[in-house]
Each structure stands twice: as C-alpha cells, then as structure tokens.
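Fold this sequence, please.
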Amino acid sequence: MLQQLRGRRVIEPHPVASELPADQDLPFVRGLFNSTAPHYDVINRWFSLGSGAWYRRRCLMRAGLRPGHRIVDVAVGTGLLAQEAVALTGDHGAVLGIDISEGMLAIAREKLGIPLIQGTADALPLAAGVADFVTMGYALRHVTNLTVTLSEFRRVLKRGGKVLLLEVSRPSKVLNRLLASLFLGEVVPRLSRLTTGEPEAEALMRYHWQTMERCVAPEIVMTAMAASGLLDVRCKTDLDLFRSFVGRNP
C-alpha cells in the first residue's frame, strides 16, 4: 500500500482486487457510476437502511458546519451529502459539488440546483483558499492516491477550514465483519439488482463492498491527513463500520 513515486509517499486507499477488471481506473469507475446514476438513491436506501440522511447531517453538525460557511463537496454523486449541507447552511449557492461522473452530476443538478463541476479529487478545478469545508462522502476508497488528494483538499481550504471525510471500512471485530460481509457483500447487491432490474446496480454494490473490505485502516487515513498538514485529526466510529474523519487547516 505504500510505495515511492517521484520522491513523494503514495498512499493507495486499497490494493487492486483480482475480482475487478484489470482497467480499474478512472474510466472504469466513471462508467460504473454513470450507468447506475438513475438508481443510486434507491440503492443507497438499501445500503443505509434509511438512516443515511440523518447520519450525514449529524456528522456535518458535529464537524461544526453552520450558516455562512462555503462547502466544496468532492465526489458529490447524486447530492446526498450536499443536500444535508444545503439544509444546514440554508444556502444552495454555498455548496459546490464536484464529481467525475456526468450521470451523477445530472441527478444532483436536477435535485439540488447547486453549482456543479466535473473534475477529480486529486486535481480540483478550483482556486486556493475558497472553502470553509471540504467534504467527501464514501468515496475516499475510489481515489488513487490519498496523499495527493488530501493535499488538494487542504489547498482549496481557507485558513482554519476543515476537511470532513465519511467512509465505510472493514469492521475490527470478527462477528461484525461476518455480518457486514453478508449484508453489504451479498444481500445489498442482490436487492439492488432486484429493485432496479439493472445488473450494473449489483456490480456497483459488489465493487463498493470489495473496496470497503480492502480499504486501508483508519489509522493510515489519519496518518495521511496529518502528513498533508491538517491539524487536530480525529476519527469517530459508529457501529464498528462507519468512520467520520475530521481535520483542520492551520
């Protein structure tokens, strides 16, 4: 997971899984999300058992988001996290979403009407110091290099701004791992296909679980956050599965 590249430490979120296509890269991920964008919210409700909106808003509030803040939501998807940010700030114009998938952006645009840009997490198409918060919900597993991505997040933050990362990673306890593997690795993918009628929906959720299961430990994410220059890095764990990482720009 750790290697040297051009003199910089590269931290990959997970090793490439043999079950996934050999071209597991930007075009593959973009295509997978584009094909499932119309069904993503339905799939997410199965995944979160209907608690997703409440949990996202709770994490944003706990991190200190309030009216007057400007937010850059990276990997905005269909706007699930951005929607809660808009509700807390009361300002659609205060939340900017970025995603690689034009399909996901189209859904977010229809739902929220917030500013949206197509782009990648490791090369944000934004000027420095424009955001009070940079958020990313359940997409850190899909980036290729945590070091570069987190450096970009810090670059677009104002002084004293915060990074909030929501992620799902492998449970630490054996029984929890077995239950998560059964529900997220088997039940949710099959339900996703049954409820949408789309084989791509099942493929997406299997891809999600494979990257969750192989994601680097929370301690490595926190180390990468600190190495990028973020201060007061902390991680809150819920149900031995959901992680909320927060760090502050100096």
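Residues 1-11, 14-24 have pLDDT under 50 and may be disordered. The radius of gyration is 17 Å.
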